[in-house]
Amino acid sequence: MHVNSLKPIKRSSFRIFLGKKAYRLKRYTEWVFDEKKYAKNKGEVKLEHVIFKHKTPLLRQLKDVDMQMQYNKVTNLKIAVKKINRIVIQPGETFSYWKTIGATTKRKGYVDGMILHYGKVRTGVGGGLCQLSNLIYWMTLHTPLTVTERYRHSYDVFPDSKRSQPFGSGATCAYNYLDLQIKNETKEPYQLVIYLTDVSLVGEWRSLNIPTNTYKVYEKEHQFTLEQWGGYVRHNTLHREIYNRSNECIDDEFITENHAITMYEPFLTGG
User: Fold this and answer.
1) Going edge to edge, which strands form the sheet with 249-262?
2) 0.90 exceeded by the pTM?
3) CA–CA distance from 264 to each of 167, 198, 257, 269 (Å)?
4) CA-wise closest residue to 55 among 160, 147, 134
């Protein structure tokens, strides 16, 4: 990929509207006619062993963003989590984020939350659900499950603030064409457990057996570049080390590369 292609493209609202309609129709068609077996069943009880667990804060004070959007995000997360919590992916099945959650409509109780539109903060019904897709993607990188579809964030909107994960370790989502899909190519079922506490969104991947391997995700080649069109682009690659039960590193895998237009001056003191 030539990073200069990341130069922001201005499109009319009408063209964006038509594009969304076309991509959504394409996805609906795929769901009907592709040969994937989509996970849809939930387990009444949690599978015994936690393979990986992670949590992220529900409320963050973001520059120039109304905190009400954060509270609304929590409302939206509660609705979406009910659809996903305890879903089991059997061997050979694929988990689809949007096929599981469905459309985020007011009729279902979704409210206006923060969405990122071409790098700008806006509001939209169901906004804030990228926190959930980010969490699921990050957790999946620490399991033997296979990510078969994921979209990186095209814009890096806010400077790092207490970031504990590498840049680019999330998955953007937009109903239904920017999906997150995960296939179980192992020989045993995996269960996704998601819930909210007073302060955190918490996720777990669970299985019947104790994990054979553990994973360490890290970044390489992190840099900012000043592009010819005048903006900065942030880059890195993600990799993961795989450790066996004796804590010996048995493999080092490339995961993905990330390129995102920064919406801030990256080299200013204090971000």
Assistant:
1) 155-156, 249-262, 232-243, 214-226
2) yes
3) 15, 31, 21, 12
4) 134
